[in-house]
From TrEMBL:
Region span, Disordered: 359-380
Transmembrane segments: 12-32
Assigned keywords, A-Z: Membrane, Transmembrane, Transmembrane helix
UniProt-recorded name of the protein: Putative Flp pilus-assembly TadG-like N-terminal domain-containing protein
Annotated organism of origin: Nitratireductor basaltis
Length: 604
């Protein structure tokens, strides 16, 4: 009997089930709680990542630290889904945008309160602290690879028509190919960024002896339309129109048309370079401007009518003497003035321009870069354009394709306008300087030294004087041909090309002009990097360090540029953003520039 009882197993299942119930229910409780914990954890991670991306966009739009942090918290809480906000805690570590490429770090802590695990503990009568909450942390990092605005400052001087070394193509054509490839590369990268407006913008600044801002801006608020700038009339003398019924008088600092000899619609209107262009009938302003006087010449100072020297003055090359000197003609004789003699005072007289019967209609005086538009040979600036769009990319590529080689080389003027293109205020508007997460970049390429020429050092006008190939005469003592600095010596004996330079101001030679322009190039580079926080990159094309003149330009460009944020040189220092290129490897150098710019690009 006893042995039979011991062998009977019919009640063991229920007993074993009862014994096993606690661990079974415990495992079920843990499984349910684990599933819910995983769900809430994933929801927290999703909210964290979404808040990171959204906050990065807000920062790129210029949100302050306080605004960005509040936005991150609000966005995170709004996207928690099944998670109770009171069970989470968010910490926001904002990036240091002073150097660009910062990192936004968001950290979230979640306390999960289990549904069944506490009951399981009570069922097992587990002793301890009674703490049943589960906790975990999550971290999200968003790398800010800034939006960028790039001005391509490209040499269009006459030497760019030469063939590039190691290549069968002209330098200007090699430049077009390399520049378009650079823009295309950055355009493709920008096209994938949908959450930021205009992430990559390019502008084009062709330069030679001067820079063309565009004739369409003739009446812009930043142009000196009334002749108020101190440099506006430096080559003009209105004294021969001070009497009669068609006279000019100065009134409240502005020269105005007076007398009934003027059409009724013109009386009391200002006389300026624009009105002289209009008077000549056969010439119109091509769009080039002079360098502003004094400290404003190589700065991005905002043009205002309250400070006339900040306004931009249209280039107007005075008609020079009809006289020849040993059969050498003047460099720019484009209006008949036989009733005048030959000195600088006669050159400055204005009455002749208002007598259309004196117009010299030789077609060789009317073409681009001639007559009153002497030294204005480049195509107009193309302002910043969003290359992430098809139309924007086409606009920039077209501007590059239309470039033509001709004229002297004025790198400081090109750099100054490159800076103004990416600068926030007028003339060409860009993102505000205060906008965080945005880089402003100027890339300059040149194939030669800075040049300004004496009249006798270049070929003169072939249509008046048999010895034009031997250089022009300088009977007016201008000491140079006319260009964006004006004459090297104006009628008051002053010279803007020598302003704020360390060179001998009485040495009117081509070499000394180059030295003065080198000083000005260094000045605009310092100003742009310090005052404008602009990143400057430079490419020297086919310049030979063994040549004294070329080496001076190479050294100047190397000193001008910024340093890389991402690369080092062989000595462990930040690499200079300077490339010494030949015609054969220009394309490769531009690919290196594309890599550098890619590291400055927007949120990743």
């Amino acid at each position: 009997m006893l042995l039979k009882f011991l062998r009977d197993e019919r009640g063991n299942y229920a007993m074993l089930t009862a014994i096993a119930m606690v661990p079974i229910m415990g495992c079920l409780a843990v499984a349910i709680d684990y599933t819910e914990a995983s769900r809430q954890r994933q929801a927290t991670l999703n909210a964290l990542d979404a808040a990171g991306i959204a906050t990065a966009v807000e920062i790129s739009k210029g949100a302050s630290d306080a605004e960005a942090e509040q936005f991150a918290h609000d966005f995170f809480l709004a996207n928690l889904g099944p998670v109770k906000p009171e069970n989470t805690e968010l910490d926001v570590d904002l990036p240091d945008m002073s150097t660009g490429g910062g990192t936004l770090v968001l950290t979230a802590d979640l306390k999960f309160k289990p549904y069944f695990y506490p009951a399981f503990q009570a069922l097992r009568k587990v002793s301890g602290s009674g703490e049943t909450d589960m906790a975990f942390s999550a971290r999200s990092e968003i790398q800010l690879k800034n939006t960028i605005e790039v001005a391509l400052v490209l040499d269009n001087s006459g030497s760019m028509d030469y063939k590039g070394s190691g290549s069968g193509k002209k330098r200007i054509d090699l430049l077009k190919e390399a520049a378009k490839e650079l823009v295309s590369t950055l355009s493709k990268q920008a096209g994938s960024m949908k959450q930021i407006n205009a992430p990559v913008q390019f502008g084009v600044v062709p330069f030679a002896a001067s820079v063309n801002v565009g004739a369409k801006y003739k009446n812009a608020s930043w142009m000196d339309t009334e002749g108020r700038s101190s440099s506006h009339h430096e080559n003009f003398d209105w004294s021969d129109m001070s009497s009669g019924n068609k006279r000019v008088e100065k009134e409240s600092g502005v020269w105005k048309k007076k007398g009934n000899g003027w059409p009724v619609t013109e009386r009391d209107k200002p006389v300026s370079r624009f009105s002289v262009f209009d008077a000549t009938m056969y010439h119109s302003w091509a769009g080039c401007v002079e360098i502003r006087p004094g400290k404003y010449g190589l700065s991005d100072a905002v043009p205002t009518t309250s400070n006339p020297d900040t306004l931009f003055v249209p280039m107007f090359a005075p008609d020079e003497t009809d006289e020849t000197w040993y059969s050498r003609p003047a460099n720019n004789n484009w209006w008949k003035d036989y009733d005048y003699s030959k000195d600088i005072d006669d050159q400055a007289r204005m009455k002749k321009y208002f007598d259309p019967t004196k117009a010299r209609l030789d077609p060789r005086t009317l073409g681009p870069g001639r007559g009153p538009n002497l030294s204005c040979t480049t195509k107009p600036i193309t302002p910043l354009t969003d290359v992430a769009t098809k139309d924007g990319l086409t606009t920039i590529e077209k501007a590059i394709d239309e470039m033509e080689a001709g004229g002297a080389t004025n790198v400081p003027d090109g750099l100054a306008w490159g800076w103004r293109v990416v600068s926030g205020p007028e003339p060409f508007k860009a993102r505000p300087e205060s906008e965080r997460g945005n880089d402003k970049v100027v890339i300059v390429l040149t194939d030669g030294a800075n040049t300004y020429y004496r009249p006798d050092s270049i070929t003169a006008q072939e249509y008046s004087g048999s010895y034009y190939r031997y250089g022009g005469n300088d009977l007016a003592n201008n000491e140079s041909i006319y260009s964006s600095f004006g004459y090297a010596r104006n009628k008051d004996g002053k010279s803007r090309i020598f302003e704020d330079t360390s060179v001998n101001k009485y040495d009117f030679s081509n070499d000394n002009y180059s030295k003065a322009m080198n000083d000005k190039m260094a000045e605009v580079c310092r100003n742009a990097k310090t005052d404008g926080n602009v990143i400057i990159m430079a490419v020297a094309l086919d310049l030979d360090e063994r040549d004294k003149t070329d080496k001076a330009q190479i050294d100047g460009l190397r000193d001008c540029v910024s340093t890389s944020r991402f690369r080092t040189d062989g000595n462990g220092n930040a690499a200079k953003l300077f490339w010494n290129a030949t015609g054969a490897n220009l394309s490769e150098k531009f690919k290196e520039i594309a890599d550098e710019l890619s590291n400055l690009r927007i949120v990743s």
